[in-house]
Amino acid sequence: MSYQPPEHIQAILASLPLKPGVYLMKDENGEIIYVGKAKRLRHRVRSYFTTHADGQPKTLKMRALVRDIEVIITENEVQALILEETLIKRHRPQFNISLKDDKRYPYIRVTWQDPYPKVETTRRIKNDGARYFGPYAAMWAVQNTLRVLRRAFPYLTCDREITGNDSRACLFYDIKLCNGPCIGAVNQETYRAMIKELMDVLSGKSDAVIARLNREMEAAAEALKFEQAAMLRDQLKAIEYITQRHRAVNPKMTDHDVIALARDKNEAVIQILFIRNGKLIGSDTRSLDGAEGESDEVILEQFLTQFYSDMAEVPRELILPNEVEQARIIERWLADKRGGNKVSITVPRRGNKRELIQMAQENASEALRMLREQWENDTTKQEEALAELQDALSLPRIPNRIECYDISTTQGTAIVASRVVFVQGRPRKSEYRRFNIRTVTHEGSDDYQSMREALTRRFNRWKDA
User: 420 with 403: CB under 8 angstroms?
Assistant: First the structure.
């Protein structure tokens, strides 16, 4: 016998529009359990309740829980994509694919718009006239890069107004980590020329800088100015250290991200290689939740929309291992994020780009293997901790599910109860909840009554389920 959805769902399916938009599937408690987008809402939503879904365990499990469907119509598919991504991040639905950790990548920022530019770190790119370099996978990598670069290019870090007339410089001038424009040791033109060379090194265009320093070092040595020659030698070593960390890939590849996917049972890992100015400047690994039963195409599409929504910089080309159905829509969305500049999504079949995909794939597989080993080790620790808890509390068996509640207030008002859940010793964040407490009517807080209300509401839901 074929599946028949509840009458309420059938009525919704019959009235769905043939327009682009987003759909939200909800359970009996009104919780959003899935968010999706569609070019034609009627066709896409109905597909979950036909025989087309019979061979998809994840879809079967989800539709059994659906008690209501809400749709939001948008003007076009790009707006639907943006709204879908926003709603997934806001609600973190149980059945959606989601990044396990949201983070912004650090960049190096050079305030080139200032008369005496400074060099600093940031996680946000603004249209403020500054020059940005990155992304870097971690802040420690940025700090390490700047620590080495400062030995070659002793830039400003203080907040002084630079006039060149100060009576004395700071300690950094004495230890040769600042070239002292505040006291007139260098003028504005010389200082900006130094910062320009620093930006060239960060951009991967260091050949001219290295050639100049080599000429000056040799000239200083011939003139018996050994201290100056030694200083130039140290600058060269610092620059070579930075350039060696950036592996040359292809001088024609100026602004690309290479993305690969590795899977093992229910686990999925994405590897990203950041290529800027023909050099591999960094890489990162991101894990995904909710990938069970989904195709590689769907996983990659969901990753792209979530990952690049928060990226401060979008490259001009994304290199993928597989085609994605919504590629042209994602390209239009990313082009908008780049200020109207074109973004291409390509799937190479041969050549240098295909080799980069294979390298990213190997890294993704290795990262997944390490994560599984780490998870297995953590599982052993979790089992040991649960056994200790059973012994400490004299429980008849090991606790499979643990719920923890806490009460918080804002100076005795706006009382909220929070719940966290652990299943088999692992946090289940999709079941974290907050309860706005309504039964405390007297002035001040009342933790006992607040806890009573939260637990009563929790177990009433369990009883009615």
Answer: yes
Average pLDDT of the chain?
A: 85
On the question of a cis peptide bond just before residue 135, with omega within 30 degrees of 0, the verdict is yes
The per-residue pLDDT for range 181-203, each reduced to its tens digit, is 998 889 999 999 989 888 888 77
- Residue of 259, 363, 353, 342 whose CA lies nearest to 302: 259
Tell me if 213 sits within 8 A of 236, measured CB to CB: yes
In a domain, 195, yes or no: yes
Rounded to whole angstroms, the Cα distance separating 157 from 170 reads: 10
Residues 6+ apart with CB under 8 A from 413: none
pLDDT on residue 249: 60
CA angle 229, 233, 237 (to 5 degrees): 170
Establish if 235 belongs to a structural domain. yes
pLDDT at 22: 94
Give the type of residue at 444. Answer: G
Domain-ending residue, one of 313, 331, 361: 361
Say what the alpha-carbon torsion angle 88, 91, 92, 94 is, to the nearest 10 degrees: -110
Whether 172 and 157 have beta carbons less than 8 Å apart is answered as: yes
Burial group, residue 25, by CB count within 10 angstroms (0-12, 13-18, 19+)? buried
CB 38 within 8 A of CB 21: yes
What letters, b where the CB count within 10 A reaches 16 and e where it falls short, cover 383-411?
eeebeeeeeeeeeeeeeeeeeeeebebee
Q: Tell me the angle at which helices 139-152 and 188-202 cross, rounded to the nearest 10 degrees.
A: 140
Of 79, 8, 69, the closest CA to residue 38 belongs to 79
DSSP track, 395-431: -SS--SEEEEEEEEEETTEEEEEEEEEEETTEE-GGG
123-to-142, 291, 312 alpha-carbon distances in Å: 11, 28, 8
Residues 386-436 have pLDDT tens digits of 888 898 899 888 888 999 999 988 776 788 999 999 988 888 888 898 888
The residue range of the domain holding 313 is: 255-361
In angstroms, how far is CA 276 from the centroid of its own chain?
18
The enclosing domain of 343 has a CATH number of 3.30.420.10
Which residues are registered as beta bridge partners of 285?
Answer: 271
* Bridge-based pairing state of the strands 267-276 and 279-289: antiparallel
In the 8-state DSSP scheme, what is residue 104? P
Q: Which tokens go with 264?
A: 């093992």
